[in-house]
Design goal:
Blueprint: H1 22-33, E1 49-55, E2 76-90, E3 99-105, E4 132-136, E5 155-157, E6 178-189, E7 210-216
Antiparallel strand pairs: 1-2, 2-6, 3-5, 3-7, 4-6
C-alpha cells in the first residue's frame, strides 16, 4: 500500500509438537512464558494529489494597443496559450468526488460589469480601467460553469487524453495517475460593447494573480 506505512515484525518461540497442533502449541507456550506482546499497527493511505504547474508561470503583455477593443463586443487582445500541467498524480481518489482544478484570483469590482465581474481577473493595484484578463476553456463543458470563459472559483475538468482537450473528462469516483494537462487561453478584454466605449476606458497597467489548485471535489 502506498503511503506512510509502519511495518511490524512478528516472532514466536514454538514448542515441539506434531504439525497439526503447531498453532495451538505455540500459543500455549507464549502465554506460559509471558511473551505475548500487543503490537500497534498504523498506516496512512494518501489522498490523491498532483503537482500543479502553470506553463508559462508568468505572462507579460507589453505595449498593447487597445483600439481593437473600443466599441467592440467581447473582442480580445493578445490571446496566449496557457497550459495547466498536472504531474506525478498518485494516491486514492474520492468515491464521491471528481478530480478538478479550481481557479481563484482577484476579479474586477467595476459595477458596470454586473454579473460578469468574476470573469475579469485583475489586481487592485492595476491602473487601467475597464479592462481585465479573461481565461478561455477549450469548450463550454470543460468546467462546472457552462460558459467558454472561466469564472473565479470554477472547477475545471481534466481531459482523459492530452490529445483530446474537449473531452471526455475524468468524472466522479475516478482517480488520476501519471501526468495530465488542462489547456486554457488568456487574453485582455473589456467585455460587452457597451462596456468598451472610449468614455469608460482608461489606459494603464493590468496585473492579476491567478491560482490553480488540484483536488477531488
Amino acid at each position: 500500500m502506498k503511503g506512510n506505512t509502519q511495518n511490524t515484525g512478528w516472532g514466536a518461540k514454538w514448542c515441539n509438537g506434531g504439525m497439526g497442533a503447531l498453532s495451538l502449541a505455540a500459543m500455549l507456550c507464549l502465554v506460559f512464558l509471558g511473551e505475548v506482546r500487543a503490537e500497534t499497527l498504523s498506516a496512512t493511505v494518501n489522498m490523491g494529489s498532483c503537482a500543479v504547474i502553470a506553463d508559462p508561470t508568468s505572462i507579460a503583455m507589453e505595449d498593447l494597443d487597445p483600439s481593437p477593443l473600443v466599441n467592440q463586443h467581447w473582442a480580445v487582445l493578445n490571446q496566449t496559450p496557457l497550459t495547466i500541467k498536472l504531474s506525478n498524480c498518485s494516491g486514492l481518489g474520492a468515491s464521491d468526488g471528481t478530480p478538478v482544478v479550481t481557479v481563484s484570483g482577484n476579479t474586477t469590482t467595476d459595477p458596470v460589469m454586473s454579473t460578469y465581474k468574476k470573469y475579469f481577473f485583475i489586481n487592485g493595484n492595476s491602473t487601467a480601467v475597464g479592462f481585465g484578463f479573461t481565461l478561455q476553456k477549450a469548450v463550454n463543458g470543460a468546467g462546472n460553469n457552462n460558459n467558454l470563459l472561466v469564472i473565479d472559483g470554477e472547477h475545471l475538468y481534466i481531459p482523459k487524453s492530452t490529445t483530446a482537450p474537449t473531452g471526455p473528462w475524468y468524472g466522479k469516483g475516478e482517480t488520476l495517475t501519471g501526468d495530465h494537462v488542462v489547456p486554457l487561453k488568456v487574453e485582455v478584454s473589456c467585455g460587452e460593447k457597451s462596456w468598451c466605449s472610449p468614455s469608460r476606458l482608461k489606459a494603464g497597467d493590468i496585473n492579476a494573480d491567478v491560482t490553480f489548485t488540484f483536488a477531488y471535489k
